[in-house]
Amino acid sequence: MAGSKYAYVRNFELPDPLLPGTFMVFRLDGHSFHRFSDEHGFTKPNDVRALELMDHAAKDLMEQHPDIVLAFGESDEFSFLLRKSATLYNRRQAKIISTLTSLFTSSYVFHWSSYFPDCPLKYPPSFDGRLVLYPSEREIRDYFAWRQTDTHINNLYNTTFWALVQQGGQSTTEAHATLKGTFAKDKNEILFSRFKMNYNTLDARFRKGSTLVREEIPEPPLPADEEIPTSVREEIPEPPPPADEEIPTSVREEIPEPPPPADEKIPTSVREEIPEPSLPADEEIQTSETPSEPAAHPARKRKKTKPRIRIVVLHCDIIKNDFWDTRPEILSG
Ligand SMILES: Nc1nc2c(ncn2[C@@H]2O[C@H](COP(=O)(O)OP(=O)(O)OP(=O)(O)O)[C@@H](O)[C@H]2O)c(=O)[nH]1
Ligand SMILES: [Mg+2]
Asked: Composition bias, kind Basic and acidic residues: at what positions (predicted)?
């Protein structure tokens, strides 16, 4: 069908494909969150509700987009790594940036009242988004090291600054002056000698930021009285997931975390496990649903299924090799 005489204007829309076979890093950042956090009474220097809400919005992005293999967030920003082979929206730059930014923003607003039940939104928050291509694993490792180093620098500064103000009675101008020209060891010393605070025992969420990865859900063991030969066992339908996998995120995330250990190894307590819901039919399927019918007989056949995947939130070191060595799939392409 012929277009109208106006349709030629479409020719001014230029294609904006992203180079194939390169890592994409998408980062978004809260617009004027200095003001937004003030207007909504965020706790200083860190507001756990606000950080958990950011994590939730990031998880929503990962659930909708299997090409995202890693996310890292702190303060009002989140970075997402899309694998090299990602074909999302035919790698059209504007489409990817605008859709991901808008989904994150709407998720942030959608879940706001779960995290701030007593504080209605005073105005709509917004986020900016950008996308950068990187050619190799080295830049990706350095990119995430850069963001986590920033987390550390900002958090140490903010923690010391607000300790001087809130506990030390200094004005904000005085606190700025006190910290001018100081190094990390000086700030640690101020925290320890004046406020008896050991920075390394602060919540790992604040010191390390939030890292979201996909993990396989281990199969629950079969009850002892249903012991059967391995060859048969592989074909038995899976039992329903254990009760603790059915706790809604909002409840699970309200469980207070115990303080992290000093050695910064990732204990279970700094790992929030979020079962991944089923994906839309047109998305690549990463999870296999648990069959709803229980086994009528232990020897009944179980389909061989892909491992079930969940998204977990970690507060761990992502600069050293350990994180990457134990998760080779993140950079595998
Ligand atoms: N009190 C408090 N403020 C926070 C928290 N997280 C983020 N913020 C605020 O958000 C700001 C984020 O920094 P920026 O992104 O550099 O500042 P911005 O005001 O968002 O400016 P643009 O990003 O350039 O629009 C911080 O400076 C804080 O003022 C929090 O947990 N508690
Ligand atoms: Mg910002």
From this structure: 262-274
Tell me the pTM: 0.80
Q: How far apart are CA 333 and CA 326, in angstroms?
A: 16
Residue 178 within any structural domain of the chain: no
- Report the C-alpha gap between 182 and 169 in whole angstroms: 19
- Domain extent for 127: 14-152+204-217+241-289+308-333
Residue 74 CB–ligand 1 contact under 6 Å = no
Residue numbering of the annotated binding site for GTP: 29-34, 75-76
User: What CATH number corresponds to the domain at position 284?
Assistant: 3.30.70.3000
81 pLDDT higher than 70: yes
In a domain? residue 89: yes
Which atom of ligand 1 approaches the CA of 46 most closely?
A: 31
**Is there a domain that residue 164 lies in?**
no
Residue 228 included in any domain = no
Higher pLDDT, 198 or 305: 198
Query: Which ligand has the nearest atom to the CA of 74?
Result: 1
For residue 100, which of 158, 46, 26, 22 has the smallest C-alpha distance? Answer: 26
The whole-number pLDDT of residue 309 equals: 94
> What distance in Å separates the CA atoms of residue 140 and residue 327, rounded to the nearest whole number?
14
Q: Is any atom of ligand 1 closer than 6 Å to the C-beta of 75?
A: yes
Counting ligand 1 atoms within 8 A of each CB, the residue from 37, 101, 205, 207 with the most, and so the one to mutate, is 37
pLDDT the model gives residue 306? 80
Lowest mean pLDDT among 89-98, 190-199, 229-238: 229-238
pLDDT value of position 223: 75
User: How many angstroms separate the CA atoms of 139 and 4, rounded?
Assistant: 48
